[in-house]
Design a protein that fits this description.
The complex is a heterodimer of chains A (about 90) and B (about 375). Chain A is built from 3 helices and 4 strands. By secondary structure, chain A is of the alpha+beta class. Chain A has a single domain, classed as Alpha-Beta Plaits (2-Layer Sandwich), CATH 3.30.70.20. In chain A, strands 1-4 form a two-stranded antiparallel sheet. Chain A has a two-stranded antiparallel sheet with strand order 2-3. In chain A, strand 2 and strand 3 form a beta hairpin. Chain A is elongated and about 50 Å long. The relative contact order of chain A is 0.29. Chain B is of the alpha/beta class and about 375 residues long. Chain B folds into 2 domains: about 240 residues, Thiamin diphosphate (ThDP)-binding fold, Pyr/PP domains (Rossmann fold, 3-Layer(aba) Sandwich), CATH 3.40.50; about 130 residues, Rossmann fold (3-Layer(aba) Sandwich), CATH 3.40.50. In chain B, about 40% of the residues lie in helices and about 20% in strands. Chain B has 13 helices and 15 strands. Chain B has a 7-stranded mixed sheet with strand order 3-2-4-5-7-6-12, sandwiched between helices. In chain B, helix 1 crosses helix 2, helix 1 runs parallel beside helix 7 and helix 10 crosses helix 13. The radius of gyration of chain B is 21 Å and the shape is globular. Chain B starts with a strand and ends in a 9-residue tail after the last strand. Classes of the chains: A alpha+beta (about 90), B alpha/beta (about 375). At the A-B interface, loops of A face helix 9 of B.
Chain lengths: ~90, ~375
């Protein structure tokens, strides 16, 4: 990549640039305990939690940085932070 | 046309003729009459610009950064503590390569609180990637704004620019100023053509994240642009001279340097006093000359060597001090003359607005001849017991 004057970039760079590799802790979603309240989707600073076909929340681990906000806020304790195994 | 004008008002008028589209400033103490005058000029519809009243200097320069990113010619002015509050944004403006022009009315940095002149404020931005011009009088302070915009906006440079002039000594002093007409200003300074800009139809982000694999190359590119600016300043300064009779092609300006034994190096309004002192010293048979540094960044090292290689000693006057080291210009001149065997003696003086008179210059020349240098000149020893 040649340098762009002023360190500029066109839109779409985050699709090429996966940022989930920084993660130390990984949220695990336990759908048996989940009440589908949607709180995790609201609080995720990355905006990387979405609903699957059964309308349960699933994270996009390509971008999840493991901040743990979803687990902290989950009223049903349905998200557990596990040490990332690499 | 010649007019008797206060330095700040003359600069405000020159800035008006440069047709900035966005002006942002904050009226903290100390601010100057520049932005006060510009506010009136915009309110009177004499300049078609957006005048943004912000809540701090940090916001003032941030607004300028954003407006420059959107493709506007922008302007701000500040001084001492206000400039310090802009510090973070200054590096961002330079790194994103926005040709912002800002006037610095040079004042001392607190604490202790001082509103008087020295060069510590702008010198503290030495490494940020802003060009730095220093004016000797009202005329030069006025003219350098046209040159600064033209150099900054050149696509081979694209760096922001500080036009620095001494607080009170220039900013509040009335002198005759030859003001350009709008037609003359327009013929010298064409409308700003941004290299790239924020555009909703063709989105772009500026100043993004650079990992260790890339960051160093961005600083290298900034350094290269600053080095290219050397030649562009000469070209734009010469063009100004050809059009209006006042030549700014030199990043330095010699005064009675031919055959000089002692060369004084100085910046800003101090040069006027030095020139008068030199005339008297020459009448008394002392071969003394001046090399005025007009452009501190990029630093004119080649010119320093060219003009000073024949002298017996160099006395550098600095209205700033890098505590624990030396004055900024002294360090640069020593570096430029390294290996030449010419003694370079530094004198830190006039801090916090202490007056420098012709007899002080004569005393400094005496000191230099005796090899006494790298000192604070004019310390009141009775206060230090």
């Amino acid at each position: 990549m040649a340098l762009n004057l002023g360190c500029t970039a066109k839109p779409g760079k985050s699709r090429e640039n996966k940022t989930g590799s920084w993660r130390v802790f990984k949220p695990e979603f336990i759908h048996d305990k989940c009440t589908q309240c949607g709180m995790c989707i609201i609080v995720c600073p990355e905006g990387c939690i979405s609903l699957n076909e059964e309308e349960y929340p699933v994270p996009d681990y390509d971008y999840c940085k493991g901040c743990g906000l979803c687990a902290e806020e989950c009223p049903a304790d349905a998200i557990e932070m596990k040490k990332e195994e690499k | 046309m010649m007019e008797i004008m206060e330095g700040s008002h003359a600069v405000a008028r020159a800035v008006t003729l440069c047709r900035p589209q966005v002006i942002a400033a904050y009226p903290i103490t100390p601010q100057t009459h520049i932005v006060e005058a510009l506010a009136e000029i915009v309110a009177n519809c004499e300049l078609d610009a957006d005048y943004i009243t912000v809540e701090s200097e940090f916001s003032a320069l941030s607004a300028c950064l954003g407006a420059s990113a959107a493709g506007s010619r922008v302007y701000s002015a500040t001084t001492s503590q206000g400039l310090a509050l802009m510090f973070e944004v200054c590096y961002n403006v330079a790194g994103m390569r926005f040709p912002v022009v800002m006037s610095i009315v040079n004042r001392a940095m607190g604490a202790p609180l001082s509103i008087w002149n020295d060069h510590q404020d702008s010198i503290s931005l030495r490494d940020s990637g802003w060009m730095q011009f220093y004016a000797e009088d009202n005329q030069e302070a006025t003219d350098l704004h046209y040159v600064a915009y033209k150099v900054a906006e050149n696509h081979r440079v694209l760096l922001p620019s500080l036009v620095c002039f001494d607080g009170y000594i220039i900013s509040h002093t009335y002198e005759p100023v030859d003001m350009l007409t709008q037609e003359q200003a327009d013929s010298y300074l064409p409308p700003f053509k941004p290299y790239h800009r924020l555009d909703a139809d063709d989105p772009i982000s500026f100043g993004l994240f650079a990992s260790p694999d890339y960051y160093q190359e961005f600083r290298y590119e900034n350094d290269q642009a600053m080095r290219r600016a050397h030649e562009i300043i000469a070209t734009c300064g010469r063009e100004f001279g050809e059009m209006f009779g006042r030549d700014y092609s030199g990043l330095v300006e010699p005064y009675r340097l031919e055959d000089a034994d002692t060369a004084i190096v100085a910046m800003g309004s101090l040069c006027g006093t030095v020139k008068d002192a030199i005339d008297e010293l020459r009448d008394a048979g002392k071969k003394v000359g001046l090399l005025k540094i007009r452009t501190f960044r990029p630093f004119p090292a080649e010119e320093i060597v060219k003009f000073l290689s024949g002298v017996s000693r160099v006395a550098v006057l600095d209205k700033n001090i890098s505590l624990g080291s030396k004055g900024a210009a002294c360090l640069e001149v020593k570096d430029a003359l390294y290996g030449s065997q010419i003694p370079v003696l530094g004198y830190v003086l006039a801090l916090g607005g202490r007056d420098v008179r012709k007899k002080d210059i004569a005393a400094i020349v005496d000191n230099a001849e005796k090899g006494i240098g790298d000192i604070f000149y004019g310390l009141r020893e009775e206060l230090l017991k």
